[in-house]
Amino acid sequence: VRVVDLRSDTLTKPTQEMRRAMFEAEVGDDVYGEDPTVNALEKKAAAMLNKEGGLFLPSATMSNLVARTPPDQNSNPYLINYRPVLISHPVCAVMSHCKERGCEAIAGDSSHMFLFEQGGAAQLGGVQMCTLPNKSDGTFDLDLMESKVRSGNDSLHEPITSLICVENTHNVCGGKVLPLDWLDELGTRARGLGIPIHMDGARLFNAAVYLKLPAARLVRDCASVSICISKGLGAPVGALLLGNKDFIQRARRVRKVLGGGMRQAGVLAAAGLVALDKMVDRLELDHRRAAGIAKAIATLNSAKFTVDLNNHQTNILFININSNDITSHNFCQRLATVSSPGAWYIFRQTALFPEMVFV
């Protein structure tokens, strides 16, 4: 029996072309900005997303954290009315947007940044997260968002809202693609508020492929975006943070203090170049395969295990357990006869979301 491991889209293997590129990569010292392969990857990713610059990091978790420290008003067209704040040593997206302790970032309450990154913004950056209820499509109410913005001008007791974070596609909401009209409206409101947007785009290219649009269109109003190359794109390691040049310069400092500065990182970046060149369009195949699994489960006509075919979009599938006789724990124990590591992971997911099993 051939077991296909569907615990996560991180369980990929580099292609032979990636392995060759890694073996042959020209390298230098990336901490000094002298690795030509890393520089090429950063330049390519920035061009794909229509941003001024990019920064290669070990993981998307670090990339999101780096992004949370505020951009300078003069260097960011989206921050026309940005409120000035004191600047202290930054800690990388959150920490590069929120430059002082006492800042606050708005995010959905089901976002990966809030649930699954150990509260890194607070732990390392002194940045508090203000959460809004995520809707089933991964969005949140924009009127409610505006009501939660705090300038610090009215009260010395309040943190200063310095960043708005979104996730596209949205993991916990089942790989949902954020609606384009919602993103556009968010961009309009954020500009009016003078607050930058950071997108956790770990699966951004899944969203772009689903919408049949360039990825740059989806991040048009975002001051920064993080993309992961080690999920569906298949590279073994790495993420990229994109934004304007001043932001990337600050992020580079934050990356260093977080221990993310790598030396001859071109060996890893080479696989990333292949991923961006060859693997983006292939994500549609992942979507079709996930849809095929969903349809196969639906054709069982089981009252105990169901999937919502109408709401499935990309490469993440939730199986609903509708039975008092079968708990998520029992189900995972039975799965353990096929793959115990996978069953353990699914159990962890259902411990957080008991009505759903993540595939």
Automatic annotation (TrEMBL):
<dbReference type="GO" id="GO:0006567">
    <property type="term" value="P:L-threonine catabolic process"/>
</dbReference>
<feature type="modified residue" description="N6-(pyridoxal phosphate)lysine">
    <location>
        <position position="231"/>
    </location>
</feature>
<keyword id="KW-0456">Lyase</keyword>
<dbReference type="InterPro" id="IPR001597">
    <property type="entry name" value="ArAA_b-elim_lyase/Thr_aldolase"/>
</dbReference>
<dbReference type="InterPro" id="IPR023603">
    <property type="entry name" value="Low_specificity_L-TA-like"/>
</dbReference>
<protein>
    <submittedName>
        <fullName>(California timema) hypothetical protein</fullName>
    </submittedName>
</protein>
<dbReference type="InterPro" id="IPR015422">
    <property type="entry name" value="PyrdxlP-dep_Trfase_small"/>
</dbReference>
<dbReference type="GO" id="GO:0008732">
    <property type="term" value="F:L-allo-threonine aldolase activity"/>
</dbReference>
<dbReference type="Pfam" id="PF01212">
    <property type="entry name" value="Beta_elim_lyase"/>
</dbReference>
<dbReference type="InterPro" id="IPR015424">
    <property type="entry name" value="PyrdxlP-dep_Trfase"/>
</dbReference>
<dbReference type="GO" id="GO:0006545">
    <property type="term" value="P:glycine biosynthetic process"/>
</dbReference>
<comment type="similarity">
    <text>Belongs to the threonine aldolase family.</text>
</comment>
<feature type="domain" description="Aromatic amino acid beta-eliminating lyase/threonine aldolase">
    <location>
        <begin position="5"/>
        <end position="67"/>
    </location>
</feature>
<dbReference type="GO" id="GO:0005829">
    <property type="term" value="C:cytosol"/>
</dbReference>
<feature type="domain" description="Aromatic amino acid beta-eliminating lyase/threonine aldolase">
    <location>
        <begin position="93"/>
        <end position="310"/>
    </location>
</feature>
<keyword id="KW-0663">Pyridoxal phosphate</keyword>
<dbReference type="InterPro" id="IPR015421">
    <property type="entry name" value="PyrdxlP-dep_Trfase_major"/>
</dbReference>
